[in-house]
Design brief:
There is one protein chain. This protein folds into two domains: 109 residues, no CATH class; 41 residues, no CATH class. It contains four helices and ten strands. Strands 4-5-6-7-8 form a five-stranded antiparallel beta sheet. A three-stranded antiparallel beta sheet has the order 1-2-3.
């Protein structure tokens, strides 16, 4: 199977931002009569890892994540980033599997995440404030002997436990 090409763009819908995922020249959400996910929710999950992770790629056209969705398992193999095992409640026109060259894929994610000209000032301040709070809380609680586990999905908060919780 050949490698697919991914192009990402952030689209401002007025009251909502969405990450348009164009795969081999076709916008995935348009193909499935939906809309893309919020870029800050999905970008980190798209990076993939050697541990497969189910990622919501498309939401219902109304903008409600729970109304309808397209998900895929995102993983990294030795020679590709793979989107597989698609599930959809929006339509049947889902790919069987998509494989991306990891270098081009990572470059595209870095490009869209690095150029935040699409991000309104209020949103940027909120994102930066949350990062500062997260880091300060992490440092303060780690100093008190707590351990942190990275959340399984972007958009979820760090959880902590004391060693005695097990």
């Amino acid at each position: 199977m050949g490698m697919s090409r991914l192009h990402l763009e952030v689209v401002d819908r007025g009251d909502d931002l969405e990450l348009a995922m164009v795969v081999d020249g076709v916008e995935l959400a348009d193909r499935l009569d939906g809309m893309g996910m919020d870029p800050d929710v999905v970008l980190e999950m798209l990076r993939g890892s050697d541990q497969p992770q189910r990622v919501q790629l498309v939401r219902c056209g109304c903008g409600d994540d729970s109304c309808g969705a397209v998900t895929a398992v995102v993983r990294r193999d030795a020679d590709a980033v793979v989107w597989a095992e698609f599930e959809s409640s929006l339509g049947d026109d889902v790919p069987a599997e998509l494989r991306f060259d990891p270098t081009r894929y990572d470059d595209e994610l870095a490009r869209i995440d690095g150029d935040r000209s699409w991000e309104p000032v209020e949103r940027r301040y909120a994102r930066q404030a949350m990062a500062l709070v997260d880091e300060a809380v992490h440092r303060a609680l780690t100093w008190r002997g707590l351990t942190f586990v990275q959340p399984p999905m972007a958009g979820k908060r760090w959880r902590m436990w004391r060693p005695t919780d097990f």
